[in-house]
Specification:
Distance between the termini: 42 Å
Largest sheet: 5 strands, mixed
Order of helices and strands: HHEHHEHEHEEEHEHEHEEHHHHHHH
């Protein structure tokens, strides 16, 4: 069999190794010392539309933390959280920045994915009231939105309504997946209340809308997930992706990086710098929503399930809780 025929049947990884081998052999034949260069690995990462959910990703990209780990992240925007999870589960992409409840449900059903870190260990969704709304009780009998009408985010809104004295069964939930659309709906009276992501909650405040509340307990809103089969074969790349985001999490809490972090969020979300400064205040200084070391605490996943149970919804998991079923800390602890 000719060398060209062998090359045709090689896998992409083997082809890369084959090409490197050819280069080394050629250099050796010229009397040069072999060059051992670590190749950059491309990792396809599924994510939702730009918002502060992806702040750590934007930082890791801007500050070269992926490059330090020889990782090239290819962003693939998913239309919904279930679609994102399906892409990772099927191997269409190698990793994703998912939603916590979606990851729990998928893993319980046997999806070959695992959480490697908590991008957000507390929620950055704040409940905002529209015109004439000054408290959660004013939402009674009204139309509200959490993005979707079912799932973890919708249940979080129902939980906040119940805690504020409003029967969630007495409101109408509508689907508005984009935070910008939710601001418009609040402004024109289409909805009376909405959960908004930073920095869009601050934009709503600028329109004289009132922040009604935020859930402040542990709640893994966005975990980093990887396809287990891919990670088993490409552990260094999976570790590199996780550690790059971990470094971004440490970096964002360093006070000397505050203005740069704000500027990165502004550029990433196309939102004014002063608005993103308020987001920094809320996310980093007040809520401390970003996991300081990207670690996943048990309560962050358990509270998602407890919220579902409290409002009588189908819980994200009905199994006895075992953190190790969902989270592998080995990617964070690796060097």
């Amino acid at each position: 069999m000719t060398i060209s025929k062998i090359y045709e049947i090689l896998s992409p990884v083997m082809k890369s190794s084959f090409r490197m081998l050819v280069v080394i052999v050629m250099l050796a034949s010229l009397g040069a010392a072999p060059i051992r260069a670590q190749q950059v690995t491309q990792v396809r990462v599924a994510m939702l539309a730009p918002s502060a959910l992806l702040w750590l990703h934007a930082i890791a990209k801007d500050q070269g933390f992926y490059a330090e780990r020889k990782i090239e992240v290819k962003e693939l925007i998913a239309g919904s959280s279930p679609a994102l999870l399906q892409a990772v589960s099927s191997g269409s992409v190698e990793a994703g920045i998912s939603l916590g409840d979606v990851a729990i449900r998928a893993i319980d059903r046997g999806a070959p994915v695992i959480i490697t870190g908590a991008v957000l260990e507390k929620t950055i969704l704040r409940l905002v009231g529209g015109a004439g709304v000054s408290s959660i009780k004013d939402l009674k009998g009204g139309v509200v939105t959490a993005g979707a009408v079912e799932g973890g985010t919708a249940n979080l809104l129902r939980f906040q309504l119940k805690a504020g004295g409003v029967d969630p069964r007495g409101v109408k939930m509508v689907a508005l997946t984009n935070s910008r659309d939710r601001i418009v709906a609040l402004g024109n009276g289409q909805v009376k209340g909405a959960l908004l992501l930073a920095p869009f909650d601050t934009l709503a405040e600028r329109e004289k809308m009132k922040i009604l509340g935020v859930y402040s307990m542990d709640y893994v809103q966005t975990p980093l997930i990887v396809n287990k089969n891919w990670a088993a074969k490409n552990r260094n790349a999976a570790i590199g992706l996780t550690k790059a985001l971990q470094k971004a999490a440490v970096w964002v809490y360093d006070a000397k990086n505050k203005q740069k972090a704000i500027n990165i969020l502004a550029a990433f979300t196309n939102v004014p710098v002063d608005v993103c400064a308020r987001s920094y205040q809320f996310i980093i200084e007040e809520q401390q929503a970003i996991g300081k070391n990207l670690e996943v605490r048990a309560a962050g996943l358990e509270n998602i399930i407890k919220i579902d149970q409290d409002i009588g919804a189908n819980p994200a998991s009905s199994k006895p809780f075992d953190l190790s079923r969902y989270y592998d800390p080995g990617f964070l602890s690796a060097k």
